[in-house]
Amino acid sequence: MRYALSAVALALLTACGQPSDTTKTQDTLMTETQAAHPFTYPVTNKGDVVDSYFEEKVADPYRWLEDDRSSETGNWVKEQNKVTFAYLDQISYRDQIKQRLEALWNYEKVGAPFIEGEYTYFFKNDGLQNQSVLYRKKGDSEAEVFLDPNTFSTDATTSLADVSFSDDGKTLAYSISEGGSDWRKIIIIDTETKKPIEETLVDVKFSGVSWKGNEGFYYSSYDKPEGSELSAKTDQHKLYYHKLGTAQKDDPVVFGGVDAEKHRYVGGGVTEDGKYLIVSAADATSGNKVFLKDLTKADSAFVTLYAEGNADFEFVDSRGDALYFVTNLNAPNKKLIKIDATAPAADQWTDVIPETANVLDVSKGAGFLFANYMVDAISQVKQYDYDGKLVRDVALPGLGTVSGFAGKTKDSTMYYSFTNYNTAPSTFAFEPKSGETSTYYKAAVKFNSDDYESKQVFYTSKDGTKVPMMITHKKGIKLDGSNPTMLYGYGGFNVSLTPAFSVANLVWMEMGGVYAVPNLRGGGEYGKAWHNAGIQLKKQNVFDDFIAAGEYLIAEKYTSSNKLAIRGGSNGGLLVGAVMTQRPDLVKVAIPQVGVLDMLRYHTFTAGAGWAYDYGTSEQSKEMYDYIKGYSPVHNVKEGVSYPATLVTTGDHDDRVVPAHSFKFAAELQAKATGPNPQMIRIETNAGHGAGVPVSKQIELAADIFGFTLFNMGVKELPKQ
């Protein structure tokens, strides 16, 4: 790995974009400003823990920070936040950014309607409500509040995670997340009275709710782990059935209760007609097995549809005994297949929508199938019948990201949302029989989208691979290397970054910033081959793609190293941590959020072992251990290196990527980094990995990130609007 610039790399950097005189002056001012506000990091005690990997000894001095229940860790969190917020408080325009965020965020947001029983339901947020509210109406009557998550807790940190109605719409099972945790509770209510009808189900994790008619539902969970429920390992997922009127302790295990059925992720769903239960079982985030149970026959056994588990199968719909799945088996860009439940052998499967050059996703509703293709990360939608006959190409409002086109067979209208980087999400009604589209809801954000432009470029990565990137900014900016630029990335787990609107990003661009998003290898933008090009012993490709994106922005004079920030969350936090430790010279600011940063131990926490398809583990081989250790951010912070100004962010209730990753990384940076750049960590209390975060906390975090970034780029005051 590289920690110092070679002569060739230094020559390339100076050729690509030397700081202008203006930038040099601003950097001088920044250093003087920081000198006027000295700070001292809290003392982080070092332990003597040493692990052995293939006969190599590796010290882990901050292992004690993994204990999220200890008072020592709690005190460390408090002291770190004191220092961080004291630093942030000195940024004169931080409140100004927050106020602008609040002003633009304050617009009504309405979701697509859906029908359950005699009511039409929809989510709405008046503007700055911490959580969106579920409303309903019957016929032409006035809408009423049905479920208001803002009342679930005094600080709005308990969120609504999922809603699932019984077939007749008379009973609702909804799940809540407290403090952002992945552990959920399921509350069951009568939809007429809105009152609970039985005891709340507890200790539910990584689960949907799928009803069997009106009598009960299927859900998934793990046995409660020993030790901390926020960090202890969970590895045997089980599918349960809850019959209304019975106690949770009596819920039978439907799948996953024996060693032969042991999997890390198990989920079950009932077909719309109630005839079959489809079970998916997986040990990693890529690939799954599929099983089928006939619910019309008492005590029917599971039938195996796919046992290898080395490809992805996603159930779409059924028609009688015909089962429709999207799969990447022998089709890296995915295809839609049909399986006969009465003759499920693989040699009897038929293609309904064949694989093409573009990645496929399929939804259903109103008696049709909707194929959503990703073409260079842009949506295209085609309507098909169940025989695979093309009905029409769906005309979309523009170039961007489409989601929706999902509903029940009896629905007559489909709804979808459309967005891109400079278009707020609006909802459209689509008539499947005629193909007509009308605007159902148009977002009224107080900005002029015509003032901004977004374009896609293709740049060359280190090994010659062409990588797409979307660059969005105000029209008319000067390409003189002086623009503050936020480079955001992910690059993993087959996740695709498609154009999407964000109030926070709009504020960034309002302030003269450039927002750039490359579609790195490891993602799913170009199918399974693109994903596999950025995993395990090819993970460095992802980092190289991100580095090359930064170099492109500098070479094309969008920005300079002194005005470039990198940001990413979760796997994207790993991306930022790896790039800033490999190329600390490339960027001025680094924002690793809820990152996977200790790569030697990630698989020992919660369900982390399920990420091994993307990462490999430090235990599987000497080759993999050496490779992982070579980029693991916690293990590659070096003494005496001047790292970018860094703001690590995490939540103390994050049980997806435990906060110990961020704690250890911050401690290493504070102990070893030299130079004028701050190494800070911002720890949100009573918050998890990101889902369900109250709007007020989202705004505060964005203001802190933007304030920290601009301040460390030498910005003295915000540009006048």
Automatic annotation (TrEMBL):
Question: Peptidase S9A N-terminal domain: from which residue to which, for each copy?
Answer: 42-440
- Signal peptide, first to last residue: none
What InterPro entries does the annotation carry? Answer: AB_hydrolase_fold, Pept_S9_AS, Pept_S9A_N, Peptidase_S9_cat, Peptidase_S9A, Prolyl_oligopep/macrocyclase
The UniProt entry, under Gene3D superfamilies, shows: alpha/beta hydrolase, Prolyl oligopeptidase, N-terminal domain
The record's listing under PROSITE patterns reads: PRO_ENDOPEP_SER, PROKAR_LIPOPROTEIN
The protein's annotated catalytic reaction(s) are: Hydrolysis of Pro-|-Xaa >> Ala-|-Xaa in oligopeptides
Q: Name one GO molecular function term.
A: serine-type endopeptidase activity
The residue ranges of the Peptidase S9 prolyl oligopeptidase catalytic domain are 500-710
Enzyme Commission number(s) from the entry: 3.4.21.26
Q: Which UniProt keywords apply?
A: Hydrolase, Protease, Serine protease
**Into which EC class is this enzyme placed?**
hydrolase
Q: Which family does it belong to?
A: Belongs to the peptidase S9A family.
What is the name of the protein in this document? prolyl oligopeptidase
Higher taxonomy: Bacteria, Pseudomonadati, Pseudomonadota, Gammaproteobacteria, Chromatiales
